[in-house]
Amino acid sequence: MKPKYSLKEVLFMGVVLLLPVIYLAFLYPSMPDTVPIHFDAEGKANGFSTKKTLWFISLLLTLLAAGLYLLVRNISSIDPKKAASTSPQTYQKISIGVASLLSAINIMIIYSAFYRGHNVARLFFPILGLFFVYLGNLMYSVKPNYFVGIRSPWTLENEDNWRATHRFGSKLFFAGGIFIMVGTLLAPVKVAMWILEGCIAVMTLAPLIYSFLYFKKHKV
Prior knowledge:
By secondary structure, the chain is mainly alpha-helical. It has 8 helices and 2 strands, in the order αββααααααα. It folds into 2 domains: about 1-115, no CATH class; about 120-220, no CATH class. Helix 4 runs antiparallel to helix 5. The longest helix has 29 residues, at about 190-215. It is globular and about 65 Å long.
């Protein structure tokens, strides 16, 4: 079943995808010839190139955002389980969220290139935390499939395990996202990096452990 695209969604996604390119075009004449394009783990610029390189980076991220949006939006067409077709609104929201995150990163890179010396981590960490909060609000309604969600051997083989694990993951992602947003805004950059890595590790491993324990508990 092919997804239906409303005019409102098409216009919104057009703005989301084109905004970084428009932003770059607006700032481009005022940019110096050499700009930072690479940043270290602490968010400080450690690689530079001509400002023309920003066009390549921005267009590449725009195409990537558009591609991922269309991929997630059309999962129902390629999912062997066909479960994605039972919750099209959830996949629509996830696809929009993924594309919006990449567009926000795109704008962040342009902003950091223009305002030389600005610590890019101060922008990236809270944005990523907000994205996890967004996913946490949607995760509980994701049906079993091979592409999106917590795909462990135990969740994919048992629908009850999938539902229980995603209810747990939903709460975990929401809480972890809030903690990342607040913690990385208040802490020094080095500490903020540890907060981000620690939260991502917990949000990645804890649902897998939960799904395994659920399997062991309910094993016939």
